[in-house]
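Hi F.,

I've been meaning to write this up properly since the lab meeting, where we talked about keeping a consistent format for the predictions we share between groups. The idea is simple: the sequence comes first, exactly as it goes in, then the structure tokens exactly as they come out, then a line or two of notes. No screenshots and no reformatting. I'm using this chain as the first example so we have something concrete to point to.
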Amino acid sequence: MASDFLGAGKYGSIVVEKSLHSHADYISSRLRQIHLEECHIQKAVPWRILHEMVAEEEGECFTLIHEDEPMGITGHAPAILNEYKEACIGVVWYVGTDTIDKCPHSFYKLSHKVVNYYSKGYDFVTNEVPAHHEETLHWLASIGCLIADKPHVTNGTKMLNFIHCQNLSSNVIPVFEKPDIS
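Output, unedited:
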């Protein structure tokens, strides 16, 4: 297995391919309950949002496949551009099926590599998860994400933001708080 994520290829028992609309069809009809709940919180229709992500030209979208069965789709896209029109904050996401339970160790190793790969193109990557999804929060923390300590509310549900920085030793300052160093 390669030491870094390089996009499409084989990583342990998981094959990674550039996402196709056929993958979105398959996965959207078989989402894990927690991912269905996240779509409902965001008022997103799984089939539609996955097809939109596959068609999106910004960022990247990959399908994870185990034993010839699509098990999830992951991706990233720029959320905020700096004054030079460069992406400085990215949004990352993953939704999947119960097939993840067949290869949890391979998935864990791969997800750590993928979030590091996604983070390379931004100052940091981020998203939000329901505050009561303890398993997801534990997984995110274990792959190097920082979790907010105070929840906010999205469409009536308490959510926690997470971020992942490529270089955790650097200070992450929100765009609106950057000091003038000119």
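Notes:
Strands lie at 9-11, 14-18, 60-66, 69-81, 87-96, 124-130, 146-147, 152-154, 157-164.
Confidence is low (pLDDT under 50) at residues 169-182.

If this format works for you, I'll send the rest the same way.

G.
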